[in-house]
User: Which sequence fits this backbone?
């Protein structure tokens, strides 16, 4: 009996995956590459044939009751369709501060170091030469021994593990991998609290949250932070002492990935509190959390000179009560776009219908994740809500239960199935529209300018060249294999002297400017640029390249 149930479950997943792939192939085409393996298809015909074969096979195995089964297939199709979108539109390039900061830190960790040498800083005499030698995502180490990654090391640690196991390109698969784990955890969480239908529905709602889709396909820390906090919550529901310990460790890993989750992580030891062995479980969870926090403080002390310092700067520069009204408006306005109109009524019904545990734990985590960002530097964009994703995901489980209650009001399975699929469509449709109109599907294409610019530099400049850059200060190191300096940190009066010093070392000096950086560079160095010969030597997309030459008698 158990083996037939497992077989039928596998067939259901295969059927749903085949149907989701057919839809994806018809609407967007399939164009996916892993190393030398490329998968391309812009026709749904073969996939529909495979779907039909799987459907017939599943039908022969027996479908016990049609409406619940069709609802299950619909939810599985939504879940697999979202995951396939992550891989179809996966961003596999290192570009600006975030992706380069994380990927380059992972490379350093895989090499067994946390601070990188910056020998080019010795070539120049600028007073802030280490800052000038720090690409995006990096800053001078406090003892001037080199440069240190400014972003938290939780994600780079995972990336380093992936790269050691499967090569450097594997860093781009960390986000979708932890995204899949997060969906599995959501299913487990909802099944423990409610039932299998609610668990699948909750998983589908999370899978089609536009924030999940946007950040499960990018080398960013949002999905990793969400996974760790969700794992901590799931472990808090277990009764074993080992689960309590690892729940605390998972909560600490969330802090190592995103330090602002400290308040949310501190709730986990309280959530493991149960009647049997309560004190022991709380103590073990606290020990796990404290162990991870101790590691984080040691890292911060090593990189930034204090266990309380971060690469983002001081708390006073990042957080202020003055930001509260602005952030409240941003979260309210964009929150409606992100979660959609069904979310609030679903949450209200779910809160009133839920038992105490599924009610207070997700709400507490959401509030704790939200609290620090109410006072954070404002960013008026819907993707700002990605900071709240570790709290939104558990709360969506409560929303799913509320909507399931609404769908089951008729007590007719067919009506329930239609309502649940309709609710899923009402979430997925606006989510896809938001992603499409905000160019989220096009990010991989847009980000292609970074390897293209690197290729231009690699082909058209001597190996000993040095490139002055801002936005491309990291990516040109990654793709162009050239040393870079930050022109935006270089004092205007130091430009000619720096070019002269680099030339004395045998380097040819170039500048890479993207978009608005052209005007910024020209404005910054307007009074001193005439001391140099400036040659416009190339352009790739919106990135222009100039060669700078210093003549002593000019």
Assistant:
């Amino acid at each position: 009996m158990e083996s037939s149930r497992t077989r039928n479950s596998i067939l259901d997943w295969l059927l749903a995956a085949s149907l989701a792939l057919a839809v994806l192939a018809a609407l967007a085409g399939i164009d996916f590459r892993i190393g030398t393996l490329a998968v391309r298809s812009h026709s749904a015909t073969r996939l529909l044939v495979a779907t039909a074969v799987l459907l017939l096979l599943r039908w022969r195995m027996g479908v016990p009751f049609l409406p619940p089964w069709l609802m299950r297939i619909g939810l599985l199709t939504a879940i697999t369709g979202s995951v396939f979108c992550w891989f179809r539109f996966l961003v596999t390039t290192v570009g600006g501060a975030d992706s380069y900061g994380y990927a380059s830190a992972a490379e350093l960790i895989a090499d067994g170091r946390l601070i990188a040498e910056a020998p080019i800083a010795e070539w120049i005499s600028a007073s802030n030469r280490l800052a000038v030698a720090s690409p995006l995502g990096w800053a001078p180490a406090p003892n001037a021994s080199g440069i240190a990654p400014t972003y938290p090391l939780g994600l780079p640690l995972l990336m380093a593990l992936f790269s050691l196991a499967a090569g450097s390109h594997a860093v781009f698969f960390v986000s979708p991998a932890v995204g899949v784990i997060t969906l599995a955890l959501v299913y487990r969480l909802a099944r423990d609290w409610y039932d299998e239908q609610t668990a699948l529905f909750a998983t589908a709602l999370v899978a089609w949250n536009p924030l999940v889709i946007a950040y499960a396909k990018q080398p960013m820390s949002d999905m990793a932070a969400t996974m760790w906090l969700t794992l901590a919550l799931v472990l808090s529901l277990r009764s074993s002492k080992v689960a309590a310990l690892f729940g605390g460790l998972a909560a600490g890993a969330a802090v190592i990935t995103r330090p602002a989750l400290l308040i949310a992580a501190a709730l986990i030891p309280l959530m493991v509190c149960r009647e049997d062995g309560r004190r022991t479980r709380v103590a073990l969870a606290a020990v796990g959390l404290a162990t991870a926090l101790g590691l984080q403080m040691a890292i911060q002390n090593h990189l930034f000179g204090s266990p309380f310092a971060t690469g983002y700067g001081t708390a006073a520069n990042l957080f202020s009560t003055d930001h509260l009204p602005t952030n409240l408006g941003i979260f309210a306005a964009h929150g409606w776009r992100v979660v959609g109109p069904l979310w609030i009524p679903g949450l209200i019904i779910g809160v009133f219908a839920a038992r105490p545990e599924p009610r207070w734990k997700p709400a507490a985590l959401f509030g704790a994740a939200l609290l620090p960002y109410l006072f954070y530097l404002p960013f008026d964009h819907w993707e700002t809500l990605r900071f709240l994703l570790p709290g939104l995901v558990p709360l969506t489980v409560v929303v799913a239960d509320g909507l399931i209650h609404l769908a089951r009001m008729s007590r007719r399975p067919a009506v329930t199935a239609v309502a649940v699929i309709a609710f899923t469509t009402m979430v997925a449709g606006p989510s896809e529209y938001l992603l499409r109109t905000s160019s989220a599907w096009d990010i991989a294409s847009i980000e292609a300018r970074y390897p293209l610019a690197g290729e231009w530099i690699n082909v058209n400049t001597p190996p000993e060249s040095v490139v002055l850059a801002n936005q491309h200060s990291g990516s040109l190191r990654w793709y162009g294999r050239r040393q870079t300096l930050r022109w935006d940190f270089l004092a205007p009066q130091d430009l000619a002297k720096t070019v002269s010093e680099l030339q004395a070392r045998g380097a040819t000096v170039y500048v890479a400017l993207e978009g608005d950086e052209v005007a910024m560079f020209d404005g910054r160095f307007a009074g001193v640029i005439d001391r140099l010969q400036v040659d416009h030597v190339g352009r790739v997309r919106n990135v222009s390249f100039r060669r700078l030459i210093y003549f002593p008698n000019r």
